[in-house]
Structure formats: C-alpha cells, structure tokens
C-alpha cells in the first residue's frame, strides 16, 4: 500500500532495538511516507541522528529547548502536522511517562500535544514486560486510545528468551498500513450514531439468600468492548452482572444479578440497538427453586435440582430484525472453532468470538485474551494473545464492516 502524502512522526526510544527503527524508517519512506524523526536523549546513546537524517531527508529533532529547531519546526507544529505518531521502540520508561502524562523531553511533549493517533511498539526485557506496573501502564495507554504493536517472543539482546522483542519492521509497517487503509482509524468516530448494547460479567443463580451458582467472569472483556465502542462514538448501554469494575466514561450501565434479570434488560433494550455483543458468562442452569430462608445443613448429602435458563442470545437471534447485528462469544475448552461455528448458526449470529477458556492466563478473569473471530461465511481469523482492550479493538474493527 502506498503511504504517499502521509506525515508520520517516528519517535525512537532508548533501547538496543533502536537500530531496527532505521529499517522501519527506510520502509516507511520507500512507501512514500513523509517521516520526521524525534530521538529521545537515551535513543541517541544507541543510534545517531545522522543516520535518521540521511534516511528521512529531514533534520532530526532531539531537543525540547533547541531554539534553532524551535524556530524551524516547533514541537507544537511537529505534533499538529503528523497524521500518525509512531513510537518504536517504546521502552518501559517511555511507556510509563506516556501513561502518566509526563512531558519532560521532546518526544513525550509531542505525544502529549498530538491529536493524531499514537501507535507504540514496546521493546524490553521479558521480566520487565511481565511486571504488573508495566502491564498496568500499557493498559492505561490502550484504554486511552493508544494502539499497540505487540512485542514478539524470542531471543532478547539481554540474553533472556521470551516476550519483549520489538516487533519486526514489516509487522509495524503492516499496522501503519492497516491504520491508513481504515481498519485502525478509531479517530473517525466510526460508530457515531450507533446504539450498542453489550452484556458482561457473570450471573448469580441463588439457591437460598446466601448461596448461589456462578462463574469466574470478571466483566473485563465486556467492559473493554463498551469503552472501545464508546470511544468510536457509539451510544453504549452495558448490562453488567455482579463485577467490581468502574463504569467506562460515557457508558450507560445497568446492573443485574441473575440470568433472568439480564435477559429481561437485554430484551427490553435490544429492539432499539443496532449492535448487540454478548460477552457475558450467563449461567446455563439455575436452581429449580430458590429457598426463601438459608438452607440448614444436616450432615447428609444434598441433591440440587437445576433447570436450564433461557438463552439470551438465542432469543435475541430469533427477534433480530434486518439491519441489526448480533455478536456472540463462545467459551470453549475443546473443538474451539467447530463448536463456535455451531453456536453462530444456532443463535443466528453475524460474528462469533471463539474463546479458548482452557488456559489459565486468558479468558475468564485474565488481563489478556486470545480469540478467533468467525464470520457467517465460516471464515476464521485467529488473533494472537493480547490485552483485552486490544482484543476489543480488533473485534470492533471486524464488527464495523457489518453495521
Ligand atoms: O469477563 P471476563 O473475565 O473478561 O472473561 C471473558 C469471558 C471469558 C467471559 C468472555 O470472553 C466469554 O468467552 N464470554 C462468553 C461466555 C459464555 O457463556 O460462553 P458460552 O459458549 O457458554 O455461550 C455462548 C454465547 O451465548 C455467549 O455469548 C453467551 O453470552 C450467550 N449465552 C449463554 C447462555 C445463556 N443462558 N444466555 C446467553 O446469552
């Protein structure tokens, strides 16, 4: 794809992978992009401004307080003129500064001023990458609309093996191309005017006033989708089971407890929705009878009679009118794709997100997810493991083509 006419600001952080940014720059300019480069002070310990100047054919920007540079191209103008800010490599330090709105060098200042979308490609030691504080900072950036090009796994310059390698230049280039071809253009408010209904979290099916059947769903996947849809301009209603998550800004939240309550609220709001996304782990069974008083133990085994709950998605699939889009999830521990395809058909869905919940670090309650998107034509697109906020963006990229 040609990037002719696209102004890209390439921010280079101080890591050993900074040398790969030279290759990235070469590929961007080869495609016709007009690239200006900002090097952080520590990046200059690894690579020279001269290399980037020769490859970009523009002076390289390094200093927040350089009066000559300021008069030629101020940091405000640098930020204003860019169609995209691409930070590669993004070190743990840079990610932390960006996540906390710091602006103590030229790159972080430009990032704070920029209204253009920001992509960042992390690169660091695997142990650093896995630290909660780094992951929290990454999540903060993703929740604020930054786009990440996932680090790769493999041999790291520090001698360790694992996740943390800067994505290869062609992978970063592909993300940039996807962005300009429309797939990543969140700034377009691509769901403006659309009404989106999402359910999330678990349900509780009470047996007596203090005991219930439930599951470990945290609501994170559904809340990430609600937040992402809102950022794309949609009017979002989120029907939430019992979860401990804050309501995403601008989202209307309706709290429910049981599957029957969740069904009632979803059915009530569905007729006006353009899009429904069923991420909730709705209880499939409920006690046949909920006792009004706490059940006493008597030392003997207890047999519970359960009855199936009504399948919310199935009932919405039957009620679906022309123009409405229905997206479901399939939580599977085996035969992921074939089981998901069956659910897609049975529930009259337009897209199903097949979720392998047999692994502990993805699916229920985890920070990350790893899913396969399957459309009505049976086409399956497996996505790599990534934070739930990033999964939400990819799901919406696919859904946008349907609404
Ligand atoms: O909440 P998190 O901790 O972030 O975890 C996310 C998740 C693992 C819960 C989520 O990614 C997921 O996989 N959600 C679907 C869980 C589920 O119930 O899957 P299922 O295969 O049993 O059901 C298929 C679909 O039917 C789902 O969209 C479900 O919401 C819907 N369903 C199921 C039963 C029922 N009574 N009514 C329904 O609408």
Give an overview of the whole structure:
It is a single chain. The protein is α/β, with parallel strands linked by helices and 403 residues long. The protein has helices at 18-30, 49-56, 67-72, 75-81, 92-99, 106-113, 126-130, 132-143, 169-180, 220-231, 259-269, 312-319, 336-346, 388-400; strands spanning 7-12, 34-39, 84-90, 118-122, 147-148, 152-155, 161-165, 195-200, 205-208, 211-213, 235-240, 252-255, 275-278, 285-287, 306-308, 325-332, 351-356, 368-369, 371-375, 380-382, 386-387. An eight-stranded mixed beta sheet has the order 12-11-8-13-16-17-19-20, sandwiched between helices. Strands 2-1-3-4-5 form a five-stranded parallel beta sheet, sandwiched between helices. A two-stranded antiparallel ribbon has the order 6-7. The chain folds into two domains: 7-187, Rossmann fold, CATH 3.40.50; 190-287 and 306-399, Rossmann fold, CATH 3.40.50.10300. Helix 13 (336-346) links the parallel strand 16 (325-332) and strand 17. Ligand PMT binds at residues 201, 217-221, 259, 278-282, 284, 309, 311-313, 328-331, 343, 355, 357, 363-365.
């Amino acid at each position: 794809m040609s990037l002719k006419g696209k102004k890209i600001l390439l921010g280079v952080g101080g890591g050993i992978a900074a040398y790969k940014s030279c290759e990235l720059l070469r590929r961007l300019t080869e495609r016709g992009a007009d690239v200006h480069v900002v090097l952080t002070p520590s990046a200059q310990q690894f690579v020279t401004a001269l290399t980037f100047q020769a490859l970009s054919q523009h002076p390289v920007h390094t200093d927040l307080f350089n009066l000559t540079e300021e008069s030629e191209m101020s940091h405000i103008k640098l930020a204003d003129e860019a169609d995209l800010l691409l930070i590669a490599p993004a070190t743990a330090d840079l990610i932390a500064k960006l996540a906390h709105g710091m602006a103590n060098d030229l790159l972080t200042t430009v990032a704070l001023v920029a209204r253009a979308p920001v992509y960042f490609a992390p690169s660091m030691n695997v142990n650093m990458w896995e630290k909660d504080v780094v992951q929290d900072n990454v999540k903060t950036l993703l929740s604020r609309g930054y786009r990440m090009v996932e680090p790769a796994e493999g041999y790291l310059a520090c001698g360790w093996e694992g996740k943390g390698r800067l994505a290869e230049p062609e992978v970063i280039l592909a993300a940039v191309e996807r962005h300009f071809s429309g797939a990543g253009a969140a700034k377009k408010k691509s769901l403006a005017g659309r009404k989106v209904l999402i359910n999330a979290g678990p349900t509780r099916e009470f047996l007596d006033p203090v005991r219930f059947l439930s599951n470990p769903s945290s609501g994170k996947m559904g809340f990430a989708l609600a937040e992402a849809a809102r950022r794309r301009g949609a009017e979002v209603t989120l029907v939430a089971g019992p979860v401990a998550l804050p309501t995403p800004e601008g989202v209307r939240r309706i709290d429910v407890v049981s599957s029957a309550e969740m069904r009632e609220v979803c059915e009530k709001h569905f007729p006006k929705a353009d899009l429904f996304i069923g991420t909730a782990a709705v209880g499939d069974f409920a006690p046949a009878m909920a006792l009004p008083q706490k059940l006493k133990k008597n030392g003997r085994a207890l047999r519970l009679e359960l009855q199936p709950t009504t399948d919310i998605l199935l009932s919405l699939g039957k009620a679906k009118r022309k123009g409405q889009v229905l997206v479901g999830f399939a939580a599977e521990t085996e035969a992921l794709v074939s089981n998901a395809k069956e659910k897609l058909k049975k529930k009259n869905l337009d897209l199903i997100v097949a979720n392998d919940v047999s692994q502990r670090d993805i699916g229920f309650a985890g920070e990350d997810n790893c899913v396969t998107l399957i459309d009505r034509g049976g086409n399956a697109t497996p996505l790599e493991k990534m934070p739930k906020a990033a999964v939400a963006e990819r799901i919406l990229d696919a859904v946008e083509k349907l609404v």
